[in-house]
Known about the structure:
It is a single chain. This protein is mainly alpha-helical and 88 residues long. The protein has helices at residues 10-32, 34-37, 47-83, and strands spanning 40-42, 45-46. A two-stranded antiparallel ribbon has the order 1-2. Mean pLDDT is 78; it is low at 77-81.
Amino acid sequence: xxxxxxxxxxxxxxxxxxxxxxxxxxxxxxxxxxxxxxxxxxxxxxxxxxxxxxxxxxxxxxxxxxxxxxxxxxxxxxxxxxxxxxxx
Length: 88
């Protein structure tokens, strides 16, 4: 029998939103100034492209963390529910 889907805690959701909102806000500020985004960081890599790559890495990492927290928080609850006599 499949286990019930787990719900992440509100704190985990707040952390996910905050961690992704901060790089987004900096990216919006960088997009307002084209001269700032055109600064060369390494070779042809500009500050704007470097920040976009950083934002992508943060998004993927935070999503992975959020999903692993949601999956791990649901396992003990489903194990205790099945040992207590059944599921809904």
